[in-house]
Amino acid sequence: MSVTPLSSRSADKLPDPSGRLLWFAMLGPLQVEVAASRAPVAGIRARSLLILLLLHRNQVVRLDRLIEFIWEAPPATAVPQVRNLVAELRRVLQAAGQEIIETSLGGYRLVATDDEVDVAQAEHHVAEGTTAAAEGDHRLALECFGRSLALWRGEPLGDVAPSLALAWRPRFTELRRRALLGKARSRLNLEMFEQAVIELLDAVVEFPFEEELRLLLVTALYRSGRSTAALKSCRDARHYFLDELGVDPSPALRSLEVEILRGGSPR
């Protein structure tokens, strides 16, 4: 995979796809760019078909599989309708100067590189950040996780068939969760506590059930000199898990609270 060198742009700047012939963005409402121009994809079925092909790019997706996700109750005309949708998508993508959607073996295959798909780029940056963190290069890790998060533009799969969103949104959610956790850990390792607090407050709202985000928030608050706020965050977490999940806080959260009360230095 060819990516822009890490030193050439900041972690939080959205990558510029202008140098690419094709750019498919799914981390938010679907966006397609062909030859640096926006190429609108109209209709929930056309968008669903394109996203299915993108998620299985460079693989043949059978016609019956496409129909299964596009319609909850497929009509008798589903097969010709899919063919019409493919023809429309080919017209949208024709400025690329090559056949992007191929007919093959009873289905269709969309040909695209990982450089042309935002989800693939986001996954690559998370993997790169995870490796950097494991090697102790927390500044590089912060850069990588920031790049992944910068690709997000809003709620993904909100403009596609419900069955498709239900099947694939968990993968997208997990990708974002990993990026947020990785970035927060990197901030703390670099002792960037104030920035970590700002980002973690939003992350906890987005992922209220993710205990590690809450642990990181408590730690960032305490290590930035806000012990009262850190203890309140501990209490909020305990009450949330008891009220919403009916479970006691983990030993890690209890130990962190005790450490703060003793005036220790949680890590």
Automatic annotation (TrEMBL):
Keywords: DNA-binding, Transcription, Transcription regulation
Gene3D superfamilies the record matches: Tetratricopeptide repeat domain, Winged helix-like DNA-binding domain superfamily/Winged helix DNA-binding domain
Pfam family, one: BTAD
A GO BP entry: regulation of DNA-templated transcription
Alphabetical list of InterPro entries matching this protein: AfsR-DnrI-RedD_regulator (IPR051677), BTAD (IPR005158), OmpR/PhoB-type_DNA-bd (IPR001867), Sig_transdc_resp-reg_C-effctor (IPR016032), TPR-like_helical_dom_sf (IPR011990), WH-like_DNA-bd_sf (IPR036388)
MF terms (GO), sorted A to Z: DNA binding
Transmembrane regions listed in the UniProt entry: none
PANTHER family, per database record: TRANSCRIPTIONAL REGULATOR REDD (PTHR35807:SF1), TRANSCRIPTIONAL REGULATOR REDD-RELATED (PTHR35807)
Name the UniProt record assigns to this protein: Transcriptional regulator, SARP family
Lineage start: Bacteria, Bacillati, Actinomycetota, Actinomycetes, Frankiales
